[in-house]
Amino acid sequence: MTMPVYMVPCDVVRTFLMDYLDGQQPLLRRWRFWFHLLLCPPCSRYLRQYKTSIQFAEDLAQERKPPPEFLEHTREFLRKHMDLQEK
Predict the structure, then answer these.
(1) Torsion angle, CA of 39/42/47/48, rounded to 10 degrees?
(2) Long-range contacts made by residues 41-48, C-beta under 8 angstroms, separation at least 24?
(3) Residue of 15, 65, 4 lying closest to 39 (CA atoms)
(4) 67 lies in which domain range?
(5) pTM value?
(6) Tell me, what's the pLDDT at 77?
(7) Is residue 48 part of a domain?
(8) Is 68 part of any domain?
(9) Taking the CB of residue 26, how many other CB atoms lie within 10 A of it?
(10) What is the C-alpha end-to-end distance of the chain, expressed in Å?
(11) Which residues 6+ apart lie within 8 Å of 50 measured at CB?
(12) What is the pLDDT of residue 85?
């Protein structure tokens, strides 16, 4: 089966997927990507997995600070523990 000229091949979609999601491609290429994703279930699945992976990585990368009470408790514990070791 010959691919229509307006279709982007699967390997191109996968190679430039981040650019597509970031909007870094010209409008015509974005349209071709969108059209390909509309008609290609494997690439649509790949896109969903890709987005999920990005979201997972972003969630992990978020800075998570412990509550101030925990920090104070830890400092007190370390001060006490260090005092005991010095004696």
Answers:
(1) 110
(2) 42/10, 43/10, 43/13, 43/14, 46/13, 46/14, 46/17, 47/17
(3) 4
(4) 10-86
(5) 0.60
(6) 83
(7) yes
(8) yes
(9) 8
(10) 82
(11) 17, 21
(12) 53
In a domain, 82, yes or no: yes
Helices (H), the chain: 10-15, 17-22, 27-39, 41-61, 68-86
DSSP state of 69: H
Euclidean distance between CA atoms 41 and 47, whole angstroms: 10
Q: Is residue 22 part of a domain?
A: yes
Q: How many domains does the chain have?
A: 1
Residue whose entry in the numeric block shows the structure tokens 């229509």: 4
Tens of pLDDT, residue by residue, the chain (87 residues): 555 656 788 998 888 888 888 888 888 888 988 999 999 999 999 999 999 988 888 887 776 777 788 888 888 888 887 765 554
